[in-house]
């Protein structure tokens, strides 16, 4: 379990994060959602033992990270922003280097190369890998010492679609394996893929955690958003939903976009209606919603929301 208690931290005199508290348990994912510069990376630096807090403490399974860094840090795997791998070393040598740091044998390196589908690139310099494979290598490096807590800074940024899919599967697998997972993102729509798992979301704004809630609750509180639906009969779907009083329009490809006032309450009914009328629904997801608008909607309900 990871517990963050009232941490403040910054660079020089100025604290850029202030009084942040949250905790993440085994089999749970905690997502730190925030705009650029809101303090996500700074938070992660404190949580992983890179940047000392000016106030507060971080506990990894009850052990204070900053008082007993040796044993607590070993329990953490960190995927930093920008990956931080050696571009002039091969995939194998990158992992071997960090294996030596952790006093881990080469067998584990081979295991991870296989697990992350990096066999073809074993002897390729990390600098020549595509972004997706660089990310995989960095994630393999973060998992080298089999940490209990995984901290991933913007894991989905700069990835193509297959890269996002395989990384998402990997994260879900790690949650199922009982790891504590903490990741940051500024992409709201990424969250919907974590609906089936225990997921809590903290929204950070200008260095302060302004909202914290279960993902399900957060989604149900997000009102008046557009949902994209991919279907085989878009025109029929539009008519059916218009008859029910929805604001609906044709979207790109075989999709429609419908405006709902309560995501969790209305979307299941919409799908049922369409399917009952012979309209196949292939995909339903919120349209990209700017973080700011979600943020305004959610924080507009007041601070100190239910935890
Ligand atoms: N090394 C540093 N020295 C001084 N100020 C910094 C440093 N790193 C970050 N900051 C400042 O701290 C604030 C928070 O930055 P941080 O990188 O933690 O935010 P972030 O939410 O991770 O942003 P992004 O999504 O852009 O990575 C910003 O105002 C940033 O300019």
UniProtKB/TrEMBL annotation:
One matching Pfam family: ABC_tran
InterPro entries linked: AAA+_ATPase, ABC_transporter-like_ATP-bd, P-loop_NTPase
PROSITE patterns given in the database record: ABC_TRANSPORTER_2
Keywords noted in UniProt: ATP-binding, Nucleotide-binding, Transport
MF term (GO), any: ATP hydrolysis activity
Family, as annotated: Belongs to the ABC transporter superfamily.
Name assigned to this protein: ABC transporter
């Amino acid at each position: 379990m990871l517990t963050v208690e009232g941490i403040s931290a910054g660079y020089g005199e100025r604290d850029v994060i202030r009084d942040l508290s949250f905790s993440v348990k085994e089999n749970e994912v905690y997502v730190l959602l925030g705009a650029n510069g809101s303090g996500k990376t700074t938070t992660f630096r404190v949580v992983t033992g890179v940047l000392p807090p000016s106030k507060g403490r971080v506990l990894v399974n009850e052990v204070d990270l900053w008082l007993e860094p040796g044993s607590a840090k070993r329990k953490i795997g960190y995927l930093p922003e920008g990956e931080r791998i050696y571009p002039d070393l091969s995939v194998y040598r990158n992992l071997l280097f960090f294996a030596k740091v952790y006093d881990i044998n080469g067998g584990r390196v081979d295991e991870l190369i296989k697990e992350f589908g990096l066999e073809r690139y074993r002897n390729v310099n990390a600098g020549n890998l595509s972004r997706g494979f660089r990310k995989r290598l960095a994630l393999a490096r973060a998992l080298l010492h089999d940490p209990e807590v995984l901290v991933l800074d913007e894991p989905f940024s700069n990835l193509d679609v297959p890269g996002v899919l395989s990384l998402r599967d990997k994260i879900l697998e790690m949650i199922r394996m009982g790891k504590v997972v903490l990741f940051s993102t500024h992409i709201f729509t990424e969250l919907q893929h974590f609906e089936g798992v225990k997921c809590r979301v903290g929204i950070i704004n200008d260095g302060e955690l302004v909202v914290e809630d279960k993902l399900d609750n957060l989604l149900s509180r997000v009102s008046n958003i557009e949902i994209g639906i991919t279907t085989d009969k878009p025109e029929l779907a539009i008519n059916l939903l218009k008859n029910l009083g929805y604001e609906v329009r044709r979207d790109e490809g075989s999709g429609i976009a419908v405006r709902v006032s309560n995501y969790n309450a209305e979307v299941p009914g919409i799908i049922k209606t369409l399917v009952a009328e012979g309209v196949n629904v292939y995909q339903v997801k919120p349209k990209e919603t700017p973080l700011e608008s979600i943020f305004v909607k959610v924080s507009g309900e007041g601070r100190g929301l239910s935890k």
